[in-house]
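fwd from M.: "can u put these together and see what the complex looks like"

so here's what she sent:
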Amino acid sequence: MTGKVFIEQLKQSWLDIFKWGIGLAILIMFMGAMVEDPATLEGYSTLINSLPREILSAFGLSDAALLTTPEGFIAFAGFTYGSIIMAVFGVMSGLNIITNDEDSGMMNIILAQPTPRWQIIVERFAAYILITAGIGLMVFAGVIAGELIFSLNLDLMKMFLGSINLVPMTLAIIGITTLVGAVFSNKLIVTGISAALILISYVINTIADAVDTAEVPIMGLVDKVSVFNYLQSESIIINGQMNYVNITILLVITAITIIMSVFAFENRDIAG
Amino acid sequence: MATQSVIQTSNLSKTYKAFRQDGTLALDNLSLNVQQGEIFGFLGPNGAGKTTTIRLLLDLIRPTGGGASIFGKDVREHSIEIHRNIGFLPGELNLWKNRTAKQVIEYIASVRGNESAQKKEAGNLADRLKFDMSKKVSDYSTGNKRKLGIILALMHTPDLLILDEPTSGLDPLMQQIFNQMMNEYKALGRTVFLSSHVLSEVQTICDRVGILRDGQLKAVETVEALTHVEFHNVTVTLRDAVPQEWIPRIQGIDGISDVRTDNNKLHLKLNGDFDPLMRAISDGYVKELHMEEPTLEDIFLAFYGDNGQKG
């Protein structure tokens, strides 16, 4: 029955929207509290300005002047930390698509029903698209709450785009974890590989940001394999619009990993 | 009424391959035929390949050789169609712990379709098994989880039940109800394929029994034939040491074999009546008489000898 797996996944995981969303919203509000006082923001910017360019880049910051605006500070601090939290959410959600049920033995019951394997992956992933988008909206709700509580006078459109910008990267991480889970049946291996891939991806992005890619061109190429390279919350705050090429790349990665997951899962034994 | 083959396997084989290791042959050229309307017991010690066979039939794992069909359809190509008409109970039932039994039942019913009829049947089964559906899965005892598994397997009244060690964890009263349910199922012309390592379980309800050992099907027998070779492991505990002059006397009794002594204990296998044995030891003081059901291995050896050839 088409749609049943999707609905069941939503029933089981809808609370994630609030668990993760509220956590991230609180983080953003906390950032709001920090930027409430312009003097603090100015002092922080001066401190950051005194750091070498490589260090700034390593933290994903190309221009310290960005930190003088509330949007810039929230984008830098809130969305950068937010992306790490969303990466963790992505791995945990990816594990929910195949691995956790296979590890517990529940997958045996599910697949003994008239439910094709592809349907498990596709419908559960579809449910996570909604859940992840819900978390993105909760993050924006945190921004609005911060705006109201601390009277920040933020550019809400930029903040909205910054919040939603976390979604494609998270979906790509869910896709990657699902693919690892479709290939391997051991939960420890799946968790280890997925976490390692995300960690390596983050480290590559951090190093690539710290070095001058004109001097070390290879880093520019290597950075292309990092999902964090396509996040770029900072540019949304500077330009006021999303980088649609990056979003497309992340969505293509997501689609490819889900298609490959279906193929891999269709052709392997289910752990007993 | 002509009987149809419901499950058919032909040289079905499965080798589990591990990284950088030679594969483990779990099932070796299994050719089996289960007829419509019978309760077929799949008997074998742990690790014999029973669960592997069931998982192959359900397309949870893929064969490394041979093939299988259910209702005349290939289990791989037509798995979805076949699963609509199968009730499955795994040996180890793991369900979503944070969901109630009712929620799990509703989900499985929704996946299969015709929800209302299934929910009604689930209610009837729950009443019969004295099962409370309102609790969370994590709050159920092993026996209650088993009951939930039985409800999930039976609530859509499938034509074929595939049950892996179905009564493990059930109390004797519930085992009796379960047996009754299986017989009712059979009376409706439906088929049951159940695995077990407990001889008494298959003896009670099965029509035929397949004996599996080391991944190989050694025999398919009727329950009557299996019962015919039934014997008991008997231990007689005496107050004093077992007199050595008893040994040839006991060994000479028809139906007694494998006589061993251990100080004041006398061990033997008895196939037949107790009376000749009691007479033979009547001049001793018997403190205790202990009788055990034969193990599967005992039955197998009695049937086929150590080399697996029928004697």
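replying to her w this: The longest helix of chain A spans residues 117-150.
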